[in-house]
Amino acid sequence: xxxxxxxxxxxxxxxxxxxxxxxxxxxxxxxxxxxxxxxxxxxxxxxxxxxxxxxxxxxxxxxxxxxxxxxxxxxxxxxxxxxxxxxxxxxxxxxxxxxxxxxxxxxxxxxxxxxxxxxxxxxxxxxxxxxxxxxxxxxxxxxxxxxxxxxxxxxxxxxxxxxxxxxxxxxxxxxxxxxxxxxxxxxxxxxxxxxxxxxxxxxxxxxxxxxxxxxxxxxxxxxxxxxxxxxxxxxxxxxxxxxxxxxxxxxxxxxxxxxxxxxxxxxxxxxxxxxxxxxxxxxxxxxxxxxxxxxxxxxxxxxxxxxxxxxxxxxxxxxxxxxxxxxxxxxxxxxxxxxxxxxxxxxxxxxxxxxxxxxxx
Length: 361
Hints:
Elements: H1 2-14, H2 27-40, E1 45-52, E2 55-66, E3 71-72, E4 79-80, H3 86-98, H4 124-128, H5 148-156, H6 172-186, H7 190-202, E5 208-209, E6 223-226, E7 229-232, H8 234-237, E8 248-250, H9 252-263, H10 270-277, E9 297-298, E10 303-307, E11 310-319, E12 322-329, E13 334-340, H11 347-359
Antiparallel strand pairs: 1-2, 1-13, 2-3, 4-8, 5-8, 6-7, 9-10, 10-11, 11-12, 12-13
Helix pairs in contact: 1-10, 2-11, 3-6
Protein backbone atom coordinates (compact mmCIF):
# COMPACT_ATOMS: atom_id res chain seq x y z
CA UNK A 1 0.00 0.00 0.00
CA UNK A 2 2.81 2.39 0.87
CA UNK A 3 4.49 1.68 -2.48
CA UNK A 4 1.18 2.35 -4.27
CA UNK A 5 0.79 5.78 -2.67
CA UNK A 6 4.41 6.66 -3.43
CA UNK A 7 3.99 5.73 -7.10
CA UNK A 8 0.72 7.66 -7.21
CA UNK A 9 2.39 10.81 -5.90
CA UNK A 10 5.28 10.46 -8.32
CA UNK A 11 2.65 10.41 -11.07
CA UNK A 12 1.10 13.58 -9.65
CA UNK A 13 4.48 15.31 -9.60
CA UNK A 14 5.27 14.36 -13.19
CA UNK A 15 1.83 15.14 -14.63
CA UNK A 16 1.98 17.33 -17.72
CA UNK A 17 0.97 20.77 -16.48
CA UNK A 18 0.19 21.83 -20.05
CA UNK A 19 -2.79 19.50 -19.91
CA UNK A 20 -4.19 21.46 -16.97
CA UNK A 21 -6.36 24.52 -17.39
CA UNK A 22 -4.23 27.65 -17.11
CA UNK A 23 -4.55 29.52 -13.82
CA UNK A 24 -5.06 33.23 -14.27
CA UNK A 25 -4.00 35.72 -11.61
CA UNK A 26 -6.37 38.62 -11.14
CA UNK A 27 -4.34 40.80 -8.78
CA UNK A 28 -7.20 43.11 -7.69
CA UNK A 29 -9.32 40.06 -6.74
CA UNK A 30 -6.46 38.53 -4.75
CA UNK A 31 -5.80 41.89 -3.08
CA UNK A 32 -9.47 42.08 -2.07
CA UNK A 33 -9.46 38.59 -0.51
CA UNK A 34 -6.37 39.41 1.52
CA UNK A 35 -7.51 42.86 2.61
CA UNK A 36 -10.90 41.58 3.75
CA UNK A 37 -9.37 38.73 5.75
CA UNK A 38 -6.68 41.00 7.18
CA UNK A 39 -9.29 43.46 8.43
CA UNK A 40 -11.72 40.85 9.74
CA UNK A 41 -8.96 39.04 11.65
CA UNK A 42 -7.27 42.26 12.90
CA UNK A 43 -3.87 41.33 11.49
CA UNK A 44 -1.27 44.12 11.55
CA UNK A 45 0.45 42.91 8.37
CA UNK A 46 0.12 40.22 5.70
CA UNK A 47 2.52 39.23 2.92
CA UNK A 48 1.55 36.86 0.11
CA UNK A 49 3.49 35.30 -2.75
CA UNK A 50 2.12 33.12 -5.56
CA UNK A 51 4.04 31.12 -8.16
CA UNK A 52 2.60 29.11 -11.06
CA UNK A 53 4.54 26.66 -13.24
CA UNK A 54 7.91 27.83 -12.00
CA UNK A 55 7.25 31.56 -12.31
CA UNK A 56 6.48 34.11 -9.60
CA UNK A 57 3.17 35.65 -10.60
CA UNK A 58 2.18 37.68 -7.57
CA UNK A 59 3.75 39.25 -4.49
CA UNK A 60 2.14 41.90 -2.33
CA UNK A 61 2.24 43.25 1.19
CA UNK A 62 -0.43 44.81 3.39
CA UNK A 63 -0.20 46.72 6.64
CA UNK A 64 2.55 47.49 9.12
CA UNK A 65 5.58 45.43 10.09
CA UNK A 66 5.92 47.54 13.25
CA UNK A 67 2.89 49.08 14.93
CA UNK A 68 4.96 51.35 17.17
CA UNK A 69 6.85 53.03 14.34
CA UNK A 70 4.11 52.56 11.70
CA UNK A 71 6.70 50.97 9.41
CA UNK A 72 5.09 49.76 6.21
CA UNK A 73 5.57 46.13 5.29
CA UNK A 74 7.79 45.43 2.26
CA UNK A 75 8.43 42.38 0.07
CA UNK A 76 11.94 42.14 1.54
CA UNK A 77 10.67 42.24 5.14
CA UNK A 78 12.10 39.41 7.26
CA UNK A 79 9.66 37.00 8.90
CA UNK A 80 9.89 34.26 11.48
CA UNK A 81 8.90 31.07 9.62
CA UNK A 82 8.01 29.11 12.77
CA UNK A 83 7.35 25.47 11.82
CA UNK A 84 7.87 26.06 8.10
CA UNK A 85 11.49 25.69 9.23
CA UNK A 86 10.83 21.94 9.43
CA UNK A 87 10.88 21.84 5.63
CA UNK A 88 14.61 22.60 5.65
CA UNK A 89 15.34 19.85 8.17
CA UNK A 90 13.27 17.33 6.21
CA UNK A 91 14.80 18.13 2.83
CA UNK A 92 18.32 18.10 4.32
CA UNK A 93 17.69 14.64 5.74
CA UNK A 94 16.41 13.27 2.42
CA UNK A 95 19.30 14.86 0.57
CA UNK A 96 21.75 13.05 2.86
CA UNK A 97 19.80 9.84 2.23
CA UNK A 98 20.15 10.34 -1.54
CA UNK A 99 23.90 10.72 -0.99
CA UNK A 100 23.89 7.41 0.95
CA UNK A 101 25.13 9.14 4.09
CA UNK A 102 22.14 7.87 6.06
CA UNK A 103 19.00 5.82 5.54
CA UNK A 104 15.48 6.75 6.57
CA UNK A 105 15.22 3.28 8.11
CA UNK A 106 18.21 3.92 10.39
CA UNK A 107 17.43 3.59 14.07
CA UNK A 108 17.82 6.54 16.39
CA UNK A 109 20.38 4.65 18.48
CA UNK A 110 22.84 4.88 15.56
CA UNK A 111 23.10 8.64 16.12
CA UNK A 112 22.07 9.38 19.72
CA UNK A 113 23.88 7.79 22.67
CA UNK A 114 22.41 6.38 25.91
CA UNK A 115 18.83 5.96 24.75
CA UNK A 116 16.15 4.15 26.73
CA UNK A 117 15.33 0.74 25.25
CA UNK A 118 11.96 1.70 23.74
CA UNK A 119 13.55 4.68 21.96
CA UNK A 120 16.04 2.48 20.09
CA UNK A 121 13.31 1.23 17.73
CA UNK A 122 12.56 4.75 16.46
CA UNK A 123 13.70 5.36 12.88
CA UNK A 124 14.54 8.59 11.07
CA UNK A 125 11.37 8.06 9.02
CA UNK A 126 9.37 7.97 12.27
CA UNK A 127 10.85 11.32 13.31
CA UNK A 128 10.10 12.97 9.96
CA UNK A 129 6.55 11.59 9.76
CA UNK A 130 5.68 12.42 13.39
CA UNK A 131 5.10 8.74 14.20
CA UNK A 132 7.94 8.36 16.73
CA UNK A 133 5.84 8.70 19.89
CA UNK A 134 8.41 11.09 21.40
CA UNK A 135 6.84 13.76 23.59
CA UNK A 136 6.85 17.35 22.37
CA UNK A 137 9.29 19.42 24.43
CA UNK A 138 7.15 22.54 23.93
CA UNK A 139 3.53 21.45 24.29
CA UNK A 140 3.87 18.36 26.51
CA UNK A 141 7.03 18.94 28.56
CA UNK A 142 7.00 22.75 28.87
CA UNK A 143 10.72 23.02 28.13
CA UNK A 144 10.64 26.28 26.19
CA UNK A 145 13.92 28.16 26.68
CA UNK A 146 15.87 25.03 27.66
CA UNK A 147 19.06 23.91 25.89
CA UNK A 148 19.32 20.59 24.04
CA UNK A 149 21.18 18.87 26.88
CA UNK A 150 18.32 19.64 29.25
CA UNK A 151 15.61 18.79 26.72
CA UNK A 152 17.26 15.46 25.90
CA UNK A 153 17.51 14.52 29.57
CA UNK A 154 13.92 15.44 30.38
CA UNK A 155 12.26 13.99 27.28
CA UNK A 156 14.27 10.76 27.09
CA UNK A 157 13.62 10.03 30.75
CA UNK A 158 9.91 9.79 29.96
CA UNK A 159 8.05 7.00 28.17
CA UNK A 160 6.88 7.25 24.56
CA UNK A 161 3.30 8.25 23.83
CA UNK A 162 2.94 5.12 21.69
CA UNK A 163 5.01 2.42 20.00
CA UNK A 164 6.88 3.90 16.99
CA UNK A 165 4.93 3.70 13.75
CA UNK A 166 1.58 2.84 15.35
CA UNK A 167 0.07 6.33 15.67
CA UNK A 168 0.67 10.02 14.90
CA UNK A 169 1.46 12.90 17.23
CA UNK A 170 3.07 16.24 16.44
CA UNK A 171 6.46 16.54 18.13
CA UNK A 172 8.88 19.44 17.80
CA UNK A 173 11.39 17.29 19.68
CA UNK A 174 11.69 14.93 16.72
CA UNK A 175 12.90 17.72 14.45
CA UNK A 176 15.44 18.95 16.99
CA UNK A 177 16.79 15.40 16.94
CA UNK A 178 16.83 15.52 13.12
CA UNK A 179 19.01 18.66 13.31
CA UNK A 180 21.45 16.78 15.57
CA UNK A 181 21.55 13.85 13.13
CA UNK A 182 22.27 16.23 10.23
CA UNK A 183 25.17 17.69 12.19
CA UNK A 184 26.60 14.28 13.04
CA UNK A 185 26.34 12.91 9.50
CA UNK A 186 27.49 16.04 7.63
CA UNK A 187 30.19 17.16 10.07
CA UNK A 188 28.76 20.69 9.88
CA UNK A 189 26.83 22.86 12.27
CA UNK A 190 23.14 22.62 11.35
CA UNK A 191 22.95 26.25 10.26
CA UNK A 192 26.17 25.93 8.25
CA UNK A 193 24.74 22.91 6.46
CA UNK A 194 21.61 24.80 5.43
CA UNK A 195 23.61 27.82 4.32
CA UNK A 196 26.14 25.86 2.24
CA UNK A 197 23.75 23.38 0.67
CA UNK A 198 20.57 25.41 0.25
CA UNK A 199 20.50 29.11 1.05
CA UNK A 200 23.72 30.14 -0.69
CA UNK A 201 23.10 28.01 -3.78
CA UNK A 202 19.53 29.25 -4.23
CA UNK A 203 20.36 32.91 -3.62
CA UNK A 204 18.32 33.00 -0.40
CA UNK A 205 20.42 35.83 1.02
CA UNK A 206 17.79 36.91 3.55
CA UNK A 207 17.29 33.48 5.13
CA UNK A 208 19.10 32.55 8.32
CA UNK A 209 18.88 31.20 11.88
CA UNK A 210 16.68 33.39 14.03
CA UNK A 211 18.36 35.87 16.37
CA UNK A 212 16.53 38.56 18.30
CA UNK A 213 19.80 40.03 19.56
CA UNK A 214 21.33 40.78 16.15
CA UNK A 215 20.31 43.79 14.08
CA UNK A 216 18.25 42.45 11.17
CA UNK A 217 17.17 45.08 8.61
CA UNK A 218 13.48 44.97 7.71
CA UNK A 219 12.65 42.57 10.55
CA UNK A 220 8.90 42.17 11.13
CA UNK A 221 7.57 42.45 14.69
CA UNK A 222 5.30 39.67 15.93
CA UNK A 223 2.14 40.37 17.93
CA UNK A 224 -0.39 38.60 20.11
CA UNK A 225 -3.89 39.85 20.79
CA UNK A 226 -5.39 39.64 24.27
CA UNK A 227 -8.79 41.11 25.12
CA UNK A 228 -8.81 43.15 21.91
CA UNK A 229 -5.41 44.68 22.67
CA UNK A 230 -2.25 43.99 20.66
CA UNK A 231 1.00 43.17 22.48
CA UNK A 232 4.58 42.63 21.35
CA UNK A 233 5.78 39.03 21.37
CA UNK A 234 9.53 39.69 21.05
CA UNK A 235 10.32 39.04 24.73
CA UNK A 236 9.26 35.40 24.39
CA UNK A 237 11.46 34.85 21.35
CA UNK A 238 14.58 35.98 23.21
CA UNK A 239 14.40 32.70 25.13
CA UNK A 240 13.93 30.36 22.15
CA UNK A 241 16.66 27.70 21.95
CA UNK A 242 15.16 25.14 19.54
CA UNK A 243 16.87 23.93 16.40
CA UNK A 244 15.48 22.27 13.29
CA UNK A 245 11.85 22.75 14.31
CA UNK A 246 11.11 26.47 14.09
CA UNK A 247 14.28 28.55 14.07
CA UNK A 248 14.57 30.10 10.58
CA UNK A 249 13.72 33.61 9.35
CA UNK A 250 13.16 34.48 5.70
CA UNK A 251 11.31 36.68 3.20
CA UNK A 252 8.49 36.07 0.74
CA UNK A 253 10.87 36.07 -2.23
CA UNK A 254 13.40 33.76 -0.58
CA UNK A 255 10.75 31.22 0.39
CA UNK A 256 9.33 31.32 -3.14
CA UNK A 257 12.83 30.48 -4.42
CA UNK A 258 12.93 27.53 -2.03
CA UNK A 259 9.53 26.22 -3.11
CA UNK A 260 10.29 26.58 -6.81
CA UNK A 261 13.59 24.70 -6.39
CA UNK A 262 11.79 21.92 -4.57
CA UNK A 263 9.02 21.68 -7.17
CA UNK A 264 11.37 21.62 -10.18
CA UNK A 265 13.66 18.91 -8.81
CA UNK A 266 16.66 21.11 -8.04
CA UNK A 267 16.76 20.03 -4.39
CA UNK A 268 15.60 16.40 -4.44
CA UNK A 269 14.81 13.54 -6.79
CA UNK A 270 11.16 12.81 -7.58
CA UNK A 271 11.17 9.67 -5.46
CA UNK A 272 12.31 11.66 -2.43
CA UNK A 273 9.74 14.38 -3.04
CA UNK A 274 7.05 11.69 -3.15
CA UNK A 275 8.13 10.67 0.37
CA UNK A 276 7.49 14.22 1.54
CA UNK A 277 4.04 14.47 0.02
CA UNK A 278 2.82 10.86 0.31
CA UNK A 279 0.49 10.09 3.26
CA UNK A 280 2.37 8.10 5.88
CA UNK A 281 1.23 4.50 6.38
CA UNK A 282 1.10 3.17 9.94
CA UNK A 283 2.07 -0.36 10.92
CA UNK A 284 -1.58 -1.46 10.78
CA UNK A 285 -1.73 -0.44 7.11
CA UNK A 286 -3.86 2.65 7.65
CA UNK A 287 -2.90 6.09 6.44
CA UNK A 288 -2.17 8.72 9.06
CA UNK A 289 -5.18 10.82 10.01
CA UNK A 290 -4.12 13.99 11.80
CA UNK A 291 -7.56 14.12 13.43
CA UNK A 292 -9.84 11.09 13.81
CA UNK A 293 -11.97 10.53 10.69
CA UNK A 294 -10.45 13.62 9.07
CA UNK A 295 -9.36 14.06 5.48
CA UNK A 296 -6.03 15.54 6.59
CA UNK A 297 -2.94 13.33 6.47
CA UNK A 298 0.81 13.86 6.92
CA UNK A 299 3.84 12.89 4.89
CA UNK A 300 7.27 14.03 6.02
CA UNK A 301 7.22 17.66 7.13
CA UNK A 302 4.08 18.41 5.07
CA UNK A 303 0.37 18.04 5.80
CA UNK A 304 -1.86 16.73 3.01
CA UNK A 305 -5.51 17.31 2.12
CA UNK A 306 -7.69 18.10 -0.90
CA UNK A 307 -9.08 21.37 -2.24
CA UNK A 308 -11.63 21.07 -5.05
CA UNK A 309 -10.41 17.53 -5.71
CA UNK A 310 -6.71 18.47 -5.93
CA UNK A 311 -4.09 17.42 -3.40
CA UNK A 312 -2.61 20.35 -1.51
CA UNK A 313 0.52 19.82 0.60
CA UNK A 314 1.45 22.44 3.12
CA UNK A 315 3.46 23.30 6.20
CA UNK A 316 1.89 25.62 8.75
CA UNK A 317 3.76 27.73 11.26
CA UNK A 318 2.46 29.50 14.33
CA UNK A 319 3.90 31.03 17.47
CA UNK A 320 5.69 33.98 19.07
CA UNK A 321 3.48 36.54 17.34
CA UNK A 322 3.44 34.99 13.87
CA UNK A 323 1.37 32.75 11.62
CA UNK A 324 2.81 31.39 8.37
CA UNK A 325 1.87 28.91 5.67
CA UNK A 326 3.71 27.34 2.72
CA UNK A 327 1.29 25.61 0.34
CA UNK A 328 1.71 23.69 -2.92
CA UNK A 329 -0.71 21.97 -5.32
CA UNK A 330 1.40 19.57 -7.44
CA UNK A 331 -1.22 18.98 -10.16
CA UNK A 332 -1.44 22.72 -10.79
CA UNK A 333 2.21 23.50 -9.99
CA UNK A 334 0.78 26.25 -7.79
CA UNK A 335 2.65 27.68 -4.79
CA UNK A 336 1.07 30.02 -2.24
CA UNK A 337 3.04 31.59 0.62
CA UNK A 338 1.32 33.56 3.39
CA UNK A 339 2.92 35.41 6.32
CA UNK A 340 1.02 37.18 9.13
CA UNK A 341 2.46 39.01 12.13
CA UNK A 342 -0.29 38.03 14.51
CA UNK A 343 -0.25 34.75 16.38
CA UNK A 344 -3.30 32.62 15.71
CA UNK A 345 -3.25 28.92 14.91
CA UNK A 346 -3.85 28.16 11.19
CA UNK A 347 -4.70 31.79 10.38
CA UNK A 348 -2.19 32.04 7.51
CA UNK A 349 -3.28 28.59 6.28
CA UNK A 350 -6.90 29.73 5.98
CA UNK A 351 -5.86 32.81 3.99
CA UNK A 352 -3.84 30.62 1.63
CA UNK A 353 -6.69 28.12 1.24
CA UNK A 354 -9.07 30.97 0.41
CA UNK A 355 -6.71 32.15 -2.33
CA UNK A 356 -6.33 28.58 -3.63
CA UNK A 357 -10.10 28.16 -3.77
CA UNK A 358 -10.33 31.33 -5.86
CA UNK A 359 -7.56 30.34 -8.27
CA UNK A 360 -8.59 26.73 -8.90
CA UNK A 361 -11.50 26.25 -11.29
